[in-house]
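fyi for ur records
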Amino acid sequence: MKSISLLICALGGEGGGVLTEWLVDTARQAGYAAQSTSIPGVAQRTGATTYYLEVFPVPLAELAGKKPVFSLNPVPGALDGLVSSELLETARQGALGMPSPERTLVITSSARVLTTQERMNLGDGRADVEHLLGVVRAVSREHHVLDMAGLCQQAGTMVSAVMLGAVAASGLLPFARAAYETVIQAGGGASAASLRGFEAGWNAVEAPRRQALQVSELLSKTELPASIVRGPQADLIQNFPQQAHAMLLAGLARMTEYQGAAYARLYLDRMAQVLSAGVFLNRPLDELKGRQINAEWLLSLLAPNPTRDLLVWMNAPQATQKNWAGVRWDVFSKRAKSDFGFDPVSDGPLVAAEKLARREGKWAAVAELYRDSYTSFPEVLTLLRAVQPPELGLFPDMDPHGPLAGYPQANEQGEPLAPRFLKAEMGCELLAEFLDGARRFARPLRPFVQLEQDPRDHRWSPGPMGGRPFTSRIR
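which gave:
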């Protein structure tokens, strides 16, 4: 059995420490083990203060001398309750991941104490209250939003007394109302005002909670078919095979606990893609046992060769998109964006050709595959011919894997240079220098131009992919 954990959030001077002492004293006088820790604020009313409380839900008399071990700090996502005197502070704790929508009861004030940044704005710099309330709803199993500031004014007391009444009415801790009131009365002079605040907080939570319990009991009496899984996620899995429901519910629970409802829905979308594509049907059962099913592995099943898929699409963009309509196209688009920084829909095939010609990053593997199997993708050369290469010098001395290697236009732009030099009265030495430059220029243009000279007629044979030979005029 685990302890009940409660995080108390307040501002300096609001009595968060007093509230924590009341709760610890109530637990001990009722015969329960409890422990509290705190992180105080900077000074009175200038900083957030947090207090962490754990209560073991079994009386000490029933533990046979055993003592529970408590934690000193709250664990994100493992809180049973969170009570806060300020709305933005509640939302901040939600952003930190402290409460979870499956476990945490959140009680918060709707009151705001403006931050320094909000006050500095020349216009209305206040945070959007509706957005903050949306955060509270998203991170809580059950939530109560109270006008604690108004209740304090009516009762003539501090907010700590109202917060105590709200916690007591929530049923989070196993103590009777009288146990809380006894501890308040032991405080002496201000106990009357504190009791009024306690009652105001109790009534603000107890009435709506009682109504919600009545509705829940009424709905629970409605019988559902055994095939329908109970819970808020039932609708999400009804389109899956019945045999997969137990596995999907377990996965949804794990993903929701890890990152939230949006992440769980992403998991379900990916499982839908995998099942609809039928990629599991040909997989041996032993291969799936004990395997960690993550996004990378699922995408590898749906698109095992994204490099080749890019060339297939570039060779016939419209026909490929039509043939891959549905899951295959969605997966291809996702992998193109994540792996190659390219959107097939918005960028188009010409942008893909530019990236292929540059051969940067993962596009180098695409260029290598294309060089080895260019005959399978004849239309890709047409795209590459439309790509404008960088500015060329007369005879740029480049590495065979340099920046011009992927541009067919570089070969075509260099061809007019040959007759210019041949018309000049070049001696043997100058001609040899020219031919050496031509070879150095043509080398990186493979496979668009062939390097080897044909010994039979002293001509340079055309490139294997149909590119115009740069040195075809040198005879």
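The longest strand covers residues 4-11. thats all i got for now
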